[in-house]
Design a protein that fits this description.
single chain; about 280 residues; five-stranded parallel beta sheet; two-stranded antiparallel sheet; 11 helices; 9 strands; binds zinc ion
Length: about 280
């Protein structure tokens, strides 16, 4: 009887796959959903391909490189020479960054499938990607930080006009459910608060991607404002964004947060452009 039931379930699954194949969120081709994998996982060592398999087809799935040492201990850029220790890069020596350190989950390439997936969340409202992305970003956080080093999680804010157009802030979607995800792995993040109303973007700016070095810095200069300094004062803040390109935006946010009494600012992004 049980065997018969098992067979029925398997036929059911096969039918579901045939009737409801999944659409790849990068290339939009249909593919059979992967077998559910219920094996236990260590959040710190989470595998990109396992987390993304329900969303990307087998062709798009491998297009990913992790952001790994040797990196700049300050801004997190990977060194071309893959041997040696982490150290401060020339750019950080020449133009010191205001934040304490920046880290990322993976390498962002415009053409790569990981990069495309990040943009799909932002521009195509594929908010279902927030689920796997949150897990990946949390794993990067747990690898690079001791959770006791951070008091507040904050998204890089959008201007209200952009927020209304889009309907969501993709940076916030990247950590919204961290507490719940961590709890499922017996990790307690209850000492870390989420704060998303203290820092504002006070004027809209053209997309940084369309600009070059100095223009980028000018573009975001004084674009952010703390409206609730009491929430910031004395706090150790992790500022979250989807992509780190030259760090202009997060550096500008950091300036404003430090001016309002934050103790230090760290940066975490899903993707990191490696110039
Ligand atoms: Zn695909
Ligand atoms: Zn650097």
């Amino acid at each position: 009887m049980t065997d018969f039931k098992g067979i029925l379930f398997r036929i059911g699954d096969a039918l579901m796959e045939a009737v409801f194949p999944t659409t790849c969120l990068v290339c939009e081709k249909l593919f059979p959903p992967p077998q559910k994998d219920y094996s236990g996982e260590d959040l710190r060592e989470i595998a990109y391909q396992k987390v993304m398999a329900p969303f990307l087809c087998p062709t798009c799935l491998p297009g990913f490189s992790p952001a790994v040492s040797p990196i700049c201990s300050k801004c997190g850029i990977m060194f071309k020479n893959r041997y040696g220790e982490d150290r401060v890069c020339n750019d950080c020596l020449m133009t010191p960054k205001r934040f304490r350190m920046a880290r990322s989950f993976g390498v962002y390439e415009t053409e790569g499938t990981f990069g495309t997936a990040i943009r799909r969340l932002k521009y195509n409202e594929e908010t279902q990607l927030a689920r796997p992305f949150q897990k990946l970003l949390l794993s990067a956080f747990l690898r690079h930080w001791d959770k006791r080093e951070i008091d507040l999680l904050m998204p890089v804010p959008l201007h209200i006009k952009r927020f209304r157009e889009r309907g969501f802030n993709q940076a916030y979607l990247l950590f919204r459910h961290w507490h719940r995800i961590a709890e499922a792995s017996d990790i307690d993040l209850s000492d870390i608060q989420i704060e998303r109303s203290a820092l504002f973007k006070i004027r809209p700016t053209p997309p940084q991607a369309s600009l070059k070095g100095r223009e980028r810095r000018e573009n975001v200069k004084d674009a952010f404002k703390v409206r609730k300094p009491d929430k910031i004062k004395g706090k150790r803040i992790l500022l979250v964004d989807d992509i780190y390109t030259t760090g202009g935006t997060v550096n500008e946010c950091t300036k404003e947060l430090l001016k309002n009494g934050a103790e230090y600012i760290d940066i975490l992004t899903l993707g990191r452009r490696m110039l």
